[in-house]
Amino acid sequence: MPSAETTQSSVREPDPVRPTKDDEVARSGSELIGGPLGRRALLGTSWWTPVRVIALVAIGMFALGLVQKAPCYNGDWFFGASSQYTHACYSDIPHLYQGRGFADGLVPYFDRLSGDMEYLEYPVLTGVFMEVASWLTPGSGSIQHQEQWYWMVNAGMLMACAAVIAVCVTRTHARRPWDGLLVALAPAFALTATINWDLLAVALTAAAMLMWSRGRPLAFGVLLGLATAAKLYPVLLLGALLVLCWRAGKWRDFGKALGGTAVAWVVVNGPVMLLAFDGWSKFYTFSQERGVDFGSFWLIMAQNSSDPLSTETVNTLATLLMLLCCVGVAALTLTAPRRPRFAQLAFLIVAAFILTNKVYSPQYVLWLVPLAALARPKWRDFLIWQACEVAYFLGIWMYLAYTTSGDAHKGLPTDGYHWAIGVHLLGTLYLCAMIVRDILMPERDPVRRAGDDDPSGGVLDGAPDVFVLGAAAHPPKHAAHFDGPQVEWGGPEPDRRSL
User: Fold this and answer.
1) Which portions of the sequence form the region Disordered (predicted)?
2) Which of 140, 286, 420, 443 is 20 to 30 Å from 319 by CA-CA measure?
3) Model confidence over 422-464: pLDDT tens digits?
4) What are phi and psi of 264, to 5 degrees?
């Protein structure tokens, strides 16, 4: 009988996954940079570890996105309404420097703005980000010069967020570090990164998911609370965790995550809520009062109807649709043959919010890119979805060029823009369908086919089920439970009960 030392030494960590070995698109694309990944690069024996490579690629792609905005930086933001759309280089950042009082030194949420907006319509942590950037912006020179500086300062801060996102995604799936290249090379990520301030919330959400994958639910909750203080969508991840922890019986860990989220959100929002409630609440009232807007199927309905639905009716219907999607995701989670992975549910729930919402700004794709890389790390499907998002990115700017160019009618007419919206919707639905298929057929899931259970799941990874609806679920399988040359399993059989 082998000794304990022999058993311990015979169990070793499985090798990292090589995407150029398992993914045909990745293998073909690698020919542009010297061919498939070798074992020495895979093991990180040189300075060029996956984290460093992917972080540098992400920064390089971000820089290309800045270059794409050059026509606007050099004049289109200031001298022409339609040219910033025909060059597809529009950004909210320079326009809101003056439009939201930063040029005049007004304090967000406390000082009233001139005009109809009254107060800054962004969540508190995003407002802090914007304010810090205004402090770093030189106050001398023309307003155009100041707006250029403000955009550049924000771009530098957002570049740091982009690097954080790439690093966190790379480190979340320990055996699949190269999946982070999906984020770093995503064309829609580079094109939309500096349209608005969404990357702050995306970076905090990616960091939160990394903490959860490391089995630190309280740190996850704190980071998710900060992310929700910067943008509303991250709180949806708690819904995904709720049903996963229900199925696995991990209520204590869910409680820590929920408590951390609530405390972090209150710490950020509480002081502003108490001292400047009208300014603090502007984000929430604006979201309710805002009518049907760009990018949603509600806009297609409104522009093709002689009697469009009222904003209140759309709010109600959109909420009901979102709740229906949540019920569907919960049912899928509790009846699937194996418990879905956290990243899969996170993508589905955020995608449902995007698809049912009454507005889809082009930068909202940033919310989904890291989740897509973790949920469905398959280059073909990822690039199909990204192509649809790039088509929509071009479509909205060409439509706005058409509506602002007067009689010249430069750009894309309304019917063409509706097709662009349809492409975006179909691309997102396609990726959702692939993820649902992976959940229902775990053997098709790229992550599980490589031998993992739920590497982003933290305490859920390899945990047995305690509550399942319908037929008994398959037992969870961790990489260390798979037979094969990479592992010699020397310990007792894992608990394979499905209760």
Assistant:
1) 1-29, 477-499
2) 420
3) 999 999 999 999 999 999 999 999 999 888 899 999 999 999 9
4) -60, -40
Cβ contact 21:446 at 8 Å = no
Closest CA to 7 of 498, 488, 354: 488
Residue type, 263: V
**Residue among 345, 330, 336, 339 at smallest CA distance from 470:** 336
Low-confidence spans in the chain with pLDDT less than 70: 1-46, 80, 471-499
Distances (CA, A) of 465 to 295, 338, 345, 367: 40, 9, 17, 30
In angstroms, what CA-CA distances link 433 with 268, 335, 336, 344, 389? Answer: 37, 17, 15, 11, 17
Are the C-beta atoms of residues 183 and 58 closer than 8 Å to each other?
Answer: yes
Joined together, the tokens standing for residue 390 give 């790039």
How confident is the model at residue 339, as a pLDDT? 96
C-beta separation of 376 from 347 below 8 A: yes
Given a contact cutoff of 8 angstroms between Cβ atoms, the answer to whether 209 and 343 are in contact is: yes
d(CA 300, CA 111): 37
Q: Map the chain to HEC letters.
A: CCCHHHHHHHCCCCCCCCHHHHCHHHHHHHHHHCCCCCHHHHCCCCCCCHHHHHHHHHHHHHHHHHHHCHHHHHHHHHHCCCHHHHCCCCCHHHHHHHHCCCCCCCCCCCCCCCCCCCCCCCCHHHHHHHHHHHHCCCCCCCHHHHHHHHHHHHHHHHHHHHHHHHHHHHHHCCCCHHHHHHHHCCHHHHHHCCCCCHHHHHHHHHHHHHHHHCCCHHHHHHHHHHHHHHCCHHHHHHHHHHHHHHHHCCHHHHHHHHHHHHHHHHHHHHHHHHHCHHHHCHHHHHHHHCCCCCCCHHHHHHHCCCCCCCHHHHHHHHHHHHHHHHHHHHHHHHHCCCCCCHHHHHHHHHHHHHHHCCCCCHHHHHHHHHHHHHHCCCHHHHHHHHHHHHHHHHHHHHHHHHHHCHHHCCCCCHHHHHHHHHHHHHHHHHHHHHHHHHHHCHHHCHHHHCCCCCCCCHHHCCCCCCCCCCCCCCCCCCHHHCCECCECCCCCCCCCCCC
Q: What are the backbone angles phi and psi of residue 484, rounded to the nearest 5°? A: 150, 175
* Chain-centroid distance, C-alpha 232: 12
